[in-house]
Design a protein that fits this description.
With 314 residues, this protein is α/β, with parallel strands linked by helices. 49% of the residues lie in helices and 12% in strands. It has twelve helices and nine strands. It has a six-stranded parallel sheet with strand order 3-2-1-4-5-6, sandwiched between helices. The chain has a three-stranded mixed sheet with strand order 7-8-9, with helices on one face. The structure holds NADP nicotinamide-adenine-dinucleotide phosphate.
Length: 314
């Protein structure tokens, strides 16, 4: 029987959706003894205490990091460097510092220079989330059957990487190790570009005349509604992602624009074969995502419909 406790003291910097979900999951799985977290305002500290997912709540990042065996930085990408600087002097020798940022190259650039030599740095990205934010939004099951990507810089201590791997597996995730550059390219197409497209299409609709806009909202179930879920994601988080994964996003955006031109031409020329071939390929991609368990096979994402009363039930 493997030892369940992976870290005696876990520090979570930033008790939002991801930070509070890690705390909830780590506690539910019994992988840590003590959880300490930061919350910057009195109001949030009170709420974190009420929600009860941490043993200790403090107002300063360095205070949380003190004596921790593992510190996971769960703040927006643009704040990670500053947080690393704040906690550097408080880290104990042999501790592991990690993060959850959706971009990895920029995080390593901003955090690594502050991490002391006797502390291990194992950046991570749990590929799991929702469009909600803050401590109330978290839940323990968020990482179940989802991927967590570790991007340790060259020469990172192998035992520290293994420990972070065991931690995320204990939380229910599958773990993959890759380099930061590759991570940023893959996520640019699977996550960042879809968000940009959603923000853009919802923005375009919002700029329509008020009468048309009312109809867009009224008839939104025609496909628009699914974009609005993604476009409701946290503005700070997504601003930071685009600013910090610029090259990979621009590369994917270039390809996207080329492909869009082909579709534009096919529509203009009445070239049904081009449209049909693409739509057949994309349908197969959705089926394979369902097959590997990363999406529900339920009709309309399992939303409740009067004609399919069972569809929306969990
Ligand atoms: P969130 O719900 O907005 O939580 C972020 C938390 O960080 C807030 O509690 C905020 O506190 C705190 N914070 C911000 N700056 C801080 C600082 N300098 N010191 C201490 N705390 C600070 O955001 P989230 O969705 O959990 O995202 C956090 C990270 O996870 C981001 O890097 C994001 O890229 C990554 N991520 C997100 C998702 C997702 O779907 N949401 C998925 C995977 C990874 P205040 O309330 O005081 O501002």
């Amino acid at each position: 029987m493997p030892e369940k406790i992976i870290f005696n003291r876990l520090a979570i910097i930033g008790a939002g959706l991801i930070g509070s979900s890690i705390a909830r999951a780590a506690r539910a799985k019994g992988t840590v003894k003590t959880i300490v977290t930061t919350a910057r305002t009195e109001k949030t500290r009170r709420r974190v205490v009420e929600l009860g997912f941490a043993d200790v709540v403090v107002d300063a990042n360095a205070l949380a990091a003190m004596d921790a065996d593992c510190v996971i930085v769960c703040v927006p990408v643009g704040d990670c460097g500053e947080v690393a600087k704040e906690i550097a002097g408080a880290l104990k020798p042999g501790a592991i510092v990690s993060d959850v940022g959706s971009v990895k190259g920029a995080i390593i650039r901003d955090m690594a220079p502050h991490i002391p030599k006797n502390v291990h740095f194992v950046p991570a990205h749990p590929v799991a989330g929702t469009e909600h934010s803050g401590p109330d939004a978290g839940f323990a099951e968020l990482f179940e059957n989802r991927w967590c990507i570790l991007t340790p810089p060259d020469h990172t201590d192998a035992a520290a990487v293994k420990k972070m791997q065991a931690f995320w597996q204990a939380l229910g995730s599958h773990v993959e190790v890759m380099n930061a550059e590759h991570h940023d390219l893959v996520l640019a197409i699977t996550s960042h570009l879809p968000h940009l497209i959603a923000y853009n299409i919802v923005g375009t609709a919002a700029d329509l005349e008020s009468r048309t806009l009312l109809e867009v909202i009224k008839f939104s179930a025609g496909g628009f509604r699914d974009f609005t879920r993604i476009a409701a994601s946290d503005p700070t988080m997504w601003r930071d992602i685009f600013l910090n994964n610029k090259d990979a996003v621009l590369e994917m955006l270039g390809r996207f624009n080329d492909d869009l031109s082909i579709l534009t031409r096919a529509i203009r020329d009445g070239d049904g074969d081009t449209l049909f071939d693409l739509f057949t390929r994309t349908r197969a991609i959705r089926r394979s995502i369902i097959e590997v368990g990363q999406e529900t096979p339920e009709t309309d994402f399992g939303r409740w419909h009067a004609e399919h009363p069972e569809a929306g039930k969990k």
